[in-house]
């Protein structure tokens, strides 16, 4: 699974109050927007957790990727129904994410986007379900807020750097791939 997201310089997905205003600090938003569809084309399914989906709903976006097979990780069945559109490939999952991971493998999905947030990504990392992290780092510090892997992660995990490049004019896009062989050695 690939955890593709953006964070502040201090590793937060959002500032206090769930504000994503820090993303406006990335210059050349047009370039940022044009970059995303390429990533979206590269994935064949999406997993999103309740906190992230609620933010999208509050901002009036609903679930914008309904054409992709999507699993919403939540205890809240109403949340899923609230964003369901005709033909949407929406599923709800709750509980042990290793079961969800096995389902995605069994369904033959090659590349799945972990859309967030950090609470979800942290659980996936703990069960060794994150293969790649692609994160755009914005040039702003936001203080308290949800972290890249949530607040409760105790697992440790090593990654190899695949790419690090200037993104737009003033941010950085880093791609890391999970290093597994060395951890087992
Ligand atoms: N910077 C970015 O590009 C970016 C990307 C993604 C998210 N975000 C931001 O990050 C924030 C959300 O992140 P977050 O870490 O707080 O929350 P999150 O991971 O999106 O959602 C956490 C919630 O999902 C549900 N959940 C998680 N694991 C579950 C499981 N195994 N079974 C059933 N339900 C489960 C629970 O809610 P219920 O019990 O209510 O179902 C839990 O409180 C938002 O502010 C969002 O805007 C930013």
Question: Describe it for me?
Answer:
With 185 residues, the chain is α/β, with parallel strands linked by helices. It has a single domain (2-184), classed as Dihydrofolate Reductase, subunit A, CATH 3.40.430. It contains 6 helices and 8 strands; from the N terminus they run βαβαβαβαβαβββα. It has helices at 29-41, 50-58, 77-83, 97-106, 118-126, 181-184, and strands at 2-7, 45-49, 70-73, 90-93, 112-116, 132-137, 159-167, 171-178. The chain has an 8-stranded mixed sheet with strand order 4-3-2-5-1-6-8-7. The longest helix has 13 residues, at 29-41. NADP nicotinamide-adenine-dinucleotide phosphate binds next to β1, α2 and α5.
The ordered string of helix (H) and strand (E) elements is: EHEHEHEHEHEEEH
Question: Which assembly state applies to the chains in this document?
Answer: single chain
What fold name goes in the CATH topology slot? Dihydrofolate Reductase, subunit A
Number of helices: 6
Radius of gyration: 16 Å
Helical residue percent band: 25-40%
Overall morphology: globular
Sheet with the most strands: spatial strand order: 4-3-2-5-1-6-8-7
- Please give the domain count: 1
The count of DSSP E runs of length 2 or more, i.e. the number of strands, is 8
- Provide the CATH architecture: 3-Layer(aba) Sandwich
- CATH C-level: Alpha Beta
Please state roughly what percent of the residues sit in beta strands, choosing from under 5%, 5-15%, 15-25%, 25-35%, 35-45% or over 45%: 25-35%
Mean pLDDT: 94
Q: What are the segments in which pLDDT stays under 50 over at least 5 consecutive residues?
A: none
- CATH-level-4 superfamily name: Dihydrofolate Reductase, subunit A
- Bound heterogens, unique: NADP nicotinamide-adenine-dinucleotide phosphate
The major pleated sheet works out as:
8 strands, mixed
């Amino acid at each position: 699974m690939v955890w593709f997201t953006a964070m502040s310089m201090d590793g937060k997905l959002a500032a206090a109050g769930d504000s994503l205003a820090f993303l406006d600090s990335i210059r050349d938003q047009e370039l940022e927007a044009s970059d995303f569809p390429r990533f979206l084309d590269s994935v064949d399914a999406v997993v999103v957790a309740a906190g992230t989906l609620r933010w999208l709903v509050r901002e009036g976006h609903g679930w914008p990727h309904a054409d992709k097979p999507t699993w919403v990780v939540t205890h809240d069945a109403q949340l899923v129904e609230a964003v369901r559109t005709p033909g949407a490939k929406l599923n709800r999952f709750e509980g042990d994410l290793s079961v969800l991971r096995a389902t995605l493998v069994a369904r033959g999905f090659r590349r799945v986007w972990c859309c967030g947030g950090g609470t979800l990504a942290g659980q996936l990392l703990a069960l060794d379900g994150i293969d790649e992290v692609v994160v755009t780092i914005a040039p702003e510090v936001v203080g308290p807020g949800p972290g890249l892997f949530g607040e409760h992660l105790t697992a440790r995990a090593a990654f190899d750097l695949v790419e690090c490049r200037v993104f737009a004019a003033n941010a950085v896009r880093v791609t890391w791939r999970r290093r597994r062989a060395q951890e087992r050695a």
